[in-house]
Amino acid sequence: MLRSVIAMSMVLVASPVWAQRATTVDPRHYTIVLENDVVRVLSVNYPPDERSEMHEHPPNVTVFLTDAQFRVTYPDGEVSNPRMNSGSVGWGAGTIHEPRSVGTQPVRVMIVEFVNLEISEGVRQRISQPEPIDLGPGMTGHALVDNELVAVRRVTFDPGAGREPHANENRNLLLMPRLGRLTVEMDGQTKILEPGEVQWVSGGTVHTERNDSDEPIEWIALLLEQLPPG
Predict the structure, then answer these.
(1) Three-state DSSP class for residue 218
(2) Quick one: 110 and 144 in the same domain?
(3) Which of 4, 37, 111, 182 is most enclosed, with most CB atoms within 10 A?
């Protein structure tokens, strides 16, 4: 499913009619849940055996909330048949494609697209060592993606676990629950996020995350470098 930025640029020049956003050509399957000058977050929902139209994704991080099986066609006629497990997370350098869901169950995916940034060909996914990151009692993180733009962490909280108020001075943060409900406090407000919802935390904003439920939860944290627009 992933293609290099050079290949994507060549297709954009040769076939501009195809270089349209997923939400423009296929609002049935792709909806915007958050958009600012850094990212566009898409909620993707495919019933079984449905296809999209040919569309473009800029560089992105994809989070699979369910298992997924697709038949993907590219503008040059090439076809791939990826299978992804629930919880899979990956970096994509950008692509133009036409996906078709070929599984027997509905598919839910979250795509975080990077907008208005110059993305060099050298920005690749780098997976860190799998050692867990100790965040405190009842909390564990795992590094999934690290590159010049984003660090992606999978975080688990035991029931009642939570972080003390803190801020990321030089990085914006995007919070995305995958299993269970994540409680977020910031700016004097409390918000409970469920899978399919996100929360943007600007760099320097004091906030806290916790698990107020009786079950373990899992969520994805994207730490984004505060780079100027390209």
Answers:
(1) strand
(2) no
(3) 182
